[in-house]
Amino acid sequence: MEAFTTHTGRAVPLRRSDVDTDQIIPSDWLKRIERTGFGAGLFSQWRTDPSFVLNNPAHAGATILLAGPNFGSGSSREHAVWALQDYGFRAVIAPKFADIFRGNSLGNGLLTVVLPAETVDALLAAVEADPATEITVDLAAREVRGAGIVAPFELDDFTRWRLMEGLDDVGLTLRHADAVAAFEQTRPSWLPSTTPA
Amino acid sequence: MGRTLAEKVWDAHVVRRADGEPDLLYIDLHLVHEVTSPQAFEALRLAGRPVRRPDLTIATEDHNVPTTDTLLPIADPVSRAQVEALRKNAADFGVRLHPMNDPGQGIVHVVGPQLGLTQPGMTVVCGDSHTATHGAFGALAFGIGTSQVEHVLATQTLPQSRPKTMAITVEGALPEGVTAKDLILAIIAEIGTGGGQGYVLEYRGEAVRSLSMEGRMTVCNMSIEAGARAGMIAPDETTFEFLKGRPHAPKGADWDAAVAYWKTLATDEDAAFDREVVIDASTLTPFVTWGTNPGQGVPLGASVPDPASFADPGVRAAAERALVYMGLTAGTPLREIAVDTVFIGSCTNGRLSDLRAAADILRGRKVADGLRVLIVPGSMQVKADAEAEGLDEVFRASGAEWRSAGCSMCLGMNPDTLKPGERSASTSNRNFEGRQGQGGRTHLVSPQVAAATAVLGRFAAPADL
């Protein structure tokens, strides 16, 4: 996965709450067996509306998404993260993210930043007023800067380190293969196996 | 201090704990389906890694499969390719698969419990957010993304940060005609679509204890719709009775040892939850959603709410948007809203007791003129059991369509979809925009309300017939 240290770009103001992953990438797109090419499906139903914010040419090339609370709710589809990344987004800023989406995003190097609702509102207002507004998401400093706002955000040290190094979890866990094998020796004998009974 | 059910199951699965890092949890059962696994298997292939524990992994075809003409090749070439990819991956990596037309095939969350693979105290994951279903057994079960599917396939573990715990205590008894589905819809409306975020929910109290295992699965299934990581119910005699004799349940001395352990899992008297919510069961009635998220629901006897009645500007804006999408006017009584389609099925309400409840209402009655009614069993086993009781005859005689097993119209990845503007009464779990087909309008209900609605053509409870 691509490492994330700091990123500066323009933003798309998506002033909606409860943006579920069915909207981010509709289920028709989930039939594909590849991991790439999902950008064309990003918000594809909403994009049929010419007034949808992603269709505003002033936001073309933006790399940060600003959204309302509970972003990424619903289905566990990681395709939602792949679609956002494939479209060009590097970070999403919202007051609250759904748990599974958050895990998927941080596992793929899409930085999801939680900021207080008032701060997200101020950033939304700034970007709506001037789409050229640049925002910096600084993972090293755990800080979002832009439109005269400097907002610290929380992210645990381990996840921050993993993102800044661009490390994926499988490789990290395999370093502990001995611990996994030792644990397996302690599992009770009655636990089921999927081998046909 | 005592521990909660969730904490006990969590603690029993920690492979590695280190300061400042997520716990590494061992996974007892990994359920796989065709939609969220192909990229995970491909990543294993590229890295030259095997599936660590194929004997703790099981796959089924559910999301894409057609529910008619199942002996023909899947017509949609993209769906067909995805199903074929799962078959190749299962064969290449040695994973047990229940393909279309196999008597063991069905929705992944129906198959696990029916085989007795889901047991109390286990950790269960699946690349599907409705994995919380298995929490009905006192298992810690949660949905994961495809990268995590890859992680579990490769290591049989998952790094996870410890969740908070929330008790949802439902006191008293559910009134006559009020079901597990109405209960969970009311809970979601109470705590909100993001209210469970960061929590594992534990459903407790008299009304929960009185539910059958199938009812408990319906409740736990929709925990994700409140944003929760998982939902759980402590195992008890109802749980043990359900499990005993199932193909993968422990037998003989193993059974006794397992039950003795399972009985230790209930939350200790002196355990503390991070948050507690109390619901009075006696106040509940059949519930119907009116909007585009599962928290936007009201009792069947109510009217479509006025967005202006919501104080929070974000909630108000979402309600206004939802009414436009749903083509509804504030103040319209739910009972006056007509539907085009009724869907009875899904991992929420596609089990035998759900079909029995619907058949009891449709027996000797006809579905309303022009209405399409799909009855889709959750698994081929449920289908066979229902047919052995003659339920298929009841449905056909009423004018409903009796289908083969799969996710079907819950998410419309197969040909079972709503057309733009069509309205459904659906026993599924999500009423998101376009969930059942682009432009489709979904109202979530119980099987009983769905069946009564099928008869009258507008939202109704069995008591209205």
From TrEMBL, chain A:
Residues spanning the signal sequence: none
Q: Which Gene3D superfamilies does the record cross-reference, listed alphabetically?
A: Aconitase, domain 4
GO annotations of cellular component type:
3-isopropylmalate dehydratase complex
Give all residue intervals belonging to the Aconitase A/isopropylmalate dehydratase small subunit swivel domain: 1-117
Q: Which CDD domains match?
A: IPMI_Swivel
Q: Tell me the GO BP annotations in alphabetical order.
A: L-leucine biosynthetic process
* Highest taxon, organism lineage: Bacteria
Q: In which pathway does it act?
A: Amino-acid biosynthesis; L-leucine biosynthesis; L-leucine from 3-methyl-2-oxobutanoate: step 2/4
Is Lyase among this UniProt entry's keywords? yes
EC id: 4.2.1.33
Q: Which reaction does it catalyse?
A: (2R,3S)-3-isopropylmalate = (2S)-2-isopropylmalate
The UniProt keyword set, sorted, is: Amino-acid biosynthesis, Branched-chain amino acid biosynthesis, Leucine biosynthesis, Lyase
Q: Record keywords: Signal included?
A: no
- Chain's role: Catalyzes the isomerization between 2-isopropylmalate and 3-isopropylmalate, via the formation of 2-isopropylmaleate.
Record note on quaternary structure: Heterodimer of LeuC and LeuD.
Which family does the record claim for this protein?
Answer: Belongs to the LeuD family. LeuD type 1 subfamily.
Name the PANTHER family for this protein: 3-ISOPROPYLMALATE DEHYDRATASE SMALL SUBUNIT (PTHR43345:SF5), 3-ISOPROPYLMALATE DEHYDRATASE SMALL SUBUNIT 2-RELATED-RELATED (PTHR43345)
Which protein, by its recorded name, is this?
Answer: 3-isopropylmalate dehydratase small subunit
Q: Which organism does this record belong to? A: Pseudofrankia asymbiotica
- The UniProt gene name for this protein comes to leuD
From TrEMBL, chain B:
Q: Does the keyword NAD apply?
A: no
Q: Name one Pfam family in it.
A: Aconitase
Q: Which reaction is catalysed here?
A: (2R,3S)-3-isopropylmalate = (2S)-2-isopropylmalate
Does the UniProt entry include the keyword Metal-binding?
yes
* Matches recorded under InterPro entries: 3-IsopropMal_deHydase_lsu, Acnase/IPM_dHydase_lsu_aba_1/3, Acoase/IPM_deHydtase_lsu_aba, Aconitase_4Fe-4S_BS, Aconitase_4Fe-4S_dom, IPM_dehydratase_rel_enz, IPMI_cat
Per the UniProt entry, what are the Gene Ontology biological process annotations, in alphabetical order? L-leucine biosynthetic process
Location of region: Disordered: 416-444
A GO molecular-function descriptor: metal ion binding
Q: Which family does it belong to?
A: Belongs to the aconitase/IPM isomerase family. LeuC type 1 subfamily.
Query: What PANTHER family is this protein classified in?
Result: 3-ISOPROPYLMALATE DEHYDRATASE (PTHR43822:SF9), HOMOACONITASE, MITOCHONDRIAL-RELATED (PTHR43822)
Supply the name of the protein. Answer: 3-isopropylmalate dehydratase large subunit
Encoding gene per record? leuC
